[in-house]
Design a protein that fits this description.
The chain is 45% helix and 14% strand. The chain contains six helices and six strands, in the order H-H-E-H-E-H-E-H-E-E-H-E. The chain has helices spanning 2-33, 36-62, 74-82, 97-112, 127-132, 167-177, and strands spanning 68-70, 86-92, 117-122, 140-145, 148-154, 217-218. Strand 4 (140-145) and strand 5 (148-154) form a beta hairpin.
Length: 222
Amino acid sequence: MANQQMDILSAVLEQSAKLMEEQVDAQLNKLSEMDEDELDKLKERRLEALKKAQKQKQEWLSKGHGEYREISSEKDFFGEVKESKNAVCHFYKSSTFRCKIFDKHLAILAKKHVETKFIKLNVEKAPFLTERLRIKVIPTLALVIDGKTKDYVVGFTDLGNTDEFSTEMLEWRLGCSGVINYSGNLMDAPTAGKKSGSKITKVEKKTIRGRSNDSDSDSGDD
């Protein structure tokens, strides 16, 4: 039985390798059949794509992306989220230990996901905004897309209910909301940092603070 299973596995691997080899050969043949003008056009398109990506990155950096920053007031919050398509705002208190755990992970993700702005705001300096977004639990992350709060990460509930969750776990959770460009598998959370025996699957869009996602709270001025 074991030998039969090994034979099947070997056959599958051999078939997969052959298929991959055929795909590579097809790409090489396609390139070899291109004339010089076509190759020049291909190189030009790739160069333009690289230039566009670099320009976009510089634009993000000019708006404060690429670093995890503290903002000082509610007024700053409205300005920050309006000028960026994607933003993550950590509502924190200095006296709350778990806020420092979020700080550590968010500082890492801010550098990795330059497409998203990462900021933090002390709730004691933002009573109106905290009430408006109905933030009751500290820490809470407000996930803002196109100026509207689309989702919240409330405490560590979605992260395995443990202080020891990994940066990858938080990255996955943000990816589920669409606030970052996530390249992993959204259907299953990373295992690192999970409590033993816990099972976490994709976070579906859900009602936020008693409201459905069809009536997202507007983070802009009324």
